[in-house]
Amino acid sequence: MNETLPAQTQPSDSVVTERLKSLDAYRGLIMITLAFGGFGLAATAGLQLKADPESAFWKVVQHQCVHAQWAGCRYWDMIQPSFMFMVGVSMAYSYAKRRRMGHSYVSMLSHAGWRSLVLIFLGVFLSSNGQQAINWTFANVLCQIGLGYCFLFLLWWRSFRTQAVAAAVLLIATWLLYVAYPGKGIDIEAGAPDVGVAADWAREHLQNVGRAWHKNANVGHAIDTWFLNLFPRAEAFEFNRGGYPTINFIPAIVTMLFGLMCGELLRSDRSGRRKIRILLIAGFCGLAAGQLLHLTGLCPVVKRIWTPAWALFSAGWCCLILATLYAIVDVLKCHRWTFPLTVVGVNSIAMYCMSHQLKPWVGRTLRMFMGRDVFQIMGEGCAPMVQSTMIGLALWLVCYWLYRRKMFIRI
Description:
Structural class: mainly alpha
Low-confidence stretches: 1-10
Number of helices: 16
Strand content: under 5%
Helix content: 55-70%
Largest sheet: none
Distance between the termini: 25 Å
């Protein structure tokens, strides 16, 4: 028997079923950025700035190709929220397809649970690569998606109002969780070396940030010092060097939920122009809401602890990126240029795992067969860019081989 939700909670079945090519392009764009190591631009910019410290171009490149130290947003910060946002968009299509195929709600829920577990343990496995013992950490993107995936599924096929209320509740609950924590924060002048916060770093990055949102002195850090030490560890967990807590997955569910809502929009029978208009409006509203919370001091835009302001701000950018790609690729049908992106986008799990496990080996192999100075073909100053690009191309060719043989690794 096919079990479904009550009819009044379900979106219309009059929807678009054609594959969303812009989603493959978006996924490929982000995955190539990650797998190619940002084309080595951050390291290349560092070398170029040593030769010309006043170069405005290389300053901008370096700024955008590394994570913000705490508050703020750069291009590199958009990689993880893009992944999570696209999970939501993809869910709108994949489970609607399963429903049309006759899968029961219970079987789909079981599948969502299995996918969650696989993603979590794959994330732990990749984080443990090269370690002496299992690295029980859950702050990486795969673990974060896995931790929130079942909760996201429970909101699938619900009404827009229900999803919007759920998003608001999760964001408000996260805000309350942080601001109600009785911690004293970081002493800006002295820092807190015992949790990896140097005094000069604190003075530069925490000056205008409320104590509830300080690095490794917030409720997320407090929870992790209890939770992560429940697992067998070679050494007791004391702090995360980047300041990333496990409970990021709670507000990150909202990022995925916004993607799910956008996916349902794109599946609907609205016109292409109207879909683009709605995505653009949602994108600018997300940017404005996140920035307003930041400027008023209610909640800073901090990716590393996935503040509610960050969830709104990053989702705004995701909507704008998706709207642009959807307009070009799916509405105007200009999609030939996306082929290199699609090759990776349809096999993103394979590329993600290869980029984590094989980069050093690929680099050594290229030097072995092409000469030890192969990465210096454009000069020492461009060596990081050449190296990252060549390694990335080698991994891309593996994805292309899989693509030609219609072999797609999915979870």
